[in-house]
Amino acid sequence: MLANALLSLVERVVNHVLQLDNSLKDRLAAIADKQLLIEIRDWQQRILCVYSNEQIHLYSTEELSFDCMISADINTLLTLKNPAMLTQLIRQDKLDLQGDLNIAQGFSNAFAELDIDWPEHFSRYIGDAPAQQLWLSLQTLKTRGAQMKGKLEKTLTTLCQDELAVTIHPLELAEFKQQNRQLKSQVSQLEMRVNALLKSC
Amino acid sequence: MNENQEKTTHFGYKTVAENDKASMVADVFHSVAAKYDVMNDLMSFGIHRLWKRQTIASSGVRKGHRVLDLAGGTGDLTAKFSQLVGDTGQVVLGDINSSMLKVGREKLRNLGHVGNIEYVQMNAEALPFPDNSFDLITIAFGLRNVTDKDKALRSMYRILKPGGRLLVLEFSKPEQEILSKAYDFYSFNILPKMGQLVANDSESYQYLAESIRMHPDQETLKDMMEDAGFEQTSYQNLTGGIVALHRGFKY
Predict the structure, then answer these.
(1) Architecture of domain B5-175+207-249
(2) Per-domain residue ranges for chain B?
(3) pLDDT > 70 in chain A, percent
(4) Mean pLDDT, range A61-71, rounded to an integer
(5) Which of A16, A91, B168, B199 could form a disulfide with B246 if both were Cys (CB 3.0 to 4.6 A apart)?
(6) With helix as H, strand as E and coil as C, how does B71-96 read?
(7) Which residues does B139 contact at the CB level (< 8 Å), separation at least 6?
């Protein structure tokens, strides 16, 4: 019941998103009333996902009634934001799929192409100009955040490689790999020579 | 002593003539209909929504299905089923009480649920439908008010299609003793006062508490469903057994 309580909150958020991007409803129309069952293996949960009557319905269920079922662990499911990954993951045995593949791809495509016009929605509350300004500020903040993250990563890498010496430099790793390959090749040659000598004895 | 006087049943803790129970229950629900939703939220702290959500999750309902929401009251389940069965399906909201049905119809229409919902006043013991006519029947917090539960279950079995299922959501017996005592205290001391304060009706809520105690426990109800003909019967305790969701199939 806890899972259904959490899903009711997620359902509210998703349905709110549906109201924010009008084109999402058009993209989901093709898979309306089709039942997508998502099995999260590591959580031992099955989530039923249906788009019906212009609303997404999400339930945690034990039922095995579906038009399409995908079964994978949570990390694999999160990579499904990119629909092109679907067939690749099936080939790698990381994902099981039963039923109509188009339904899973339909949901995946619909949300991958999510495009919410935030300034338009903000403008309803604070007017056009402040909404645009707020959106630009948020974008700048996002860019600066990404830059800060990059800088922080660089600093941390330098610290670990040069100051604390707990990790090696990528060049050192490349050199180590190169030496490994040489060693492997030399061992193979030696093996061939030994085999040839053994045969001649 | 005539035959009618010999046949008795319980109305909460009182013993009443079988013929009188339906009208007494009707009085209770005429009285609480207007404040039913508010009281449900208050009394259960909103948890009744999760119990109903669990019922929908266990229903296996899909587009085109025909669903009977028996004792559907103010239509919480009907609203969701109406969306899930789509325009090719149908939901019948049935209740013995005209006041509850009226409140339910008004609420659902205001929410925009129209087109695939039918409202029928009916007695669960003699359902006015042909054999094999529904894919799913639900009865949420209604069975304990029915005078002859066995007869009602047989009637539900009759109108269910082969492959169809019955879901009974009803108050039941808490699994833990400590929860049972806390629940008893709440039911008999706080609930009637809450009813008096909000709905100006403590007696109806006293009846609610008593009728819950008189209702069969999980195993007994499961047996009753099997006796009525249902197969693969099972139940799931919700909130420590305060409520149980019973499930049975017709094959």
Answers:
(1) 3-Layer(aba) Sandwich (3.40)
(2) 5-175+207-249
(3) 98
(4) 87
(5) B168
(6) CCCCCHHHHHHHHHHCCCCEEEEEEC
(7) B70, B71, B124, B156, B166, B167, B168, B169, B170
**CB contact B113 to A (< 8 Å):** no
Edge-to-edge strands, sheet with B134-140: B117-121, B90-95, B66-70, B134-140, B160-171, B243-249, B231-238
A63 or B89: which leads in pLDDT: B89
Confidence check: pLDDT of B102 > 70: yes
Res. A184: pLDDT tops 70: yes
Which of A 5-34 lie inside 8 A of B, CB atoms? 5, 8, 33
Question: Is the per-residue pLDDT at B3 higher than 60?
Answer: no
Per residue in A105-147, pLDDT (tens digit) is 888 888 777 777 788 878 888 888 888 888 899 999 999 999 9
- The three-class DSSP label of residue B130 is coil
pLDDT of residue B127: 94
Touching A: B residues 66-85, CB under 8 Å: 80, 82-84
Residues B239, A1: C-beta atoms closer than 8 Å:
yes
pLDDT digits (tens, 9 = 90+) for B171-188: 999 988 898 888 888 888
- Which segments within B74-159 are labelled E, that is strand? 90-95, 117-121, 134-140
The domain spans of chain A are: 2-112, 117-165, 168-201
Query: B243 is written with which tokens?
Result: 């409520």
- The architecture in CATH of the region A2-112 reads 2-Layer Sandwich (3.30)
Q: Examine the predicted complex and report whether its ipTM is higher than 0.85.
A: no
H-run or E-run covering A98:
strand A96-99
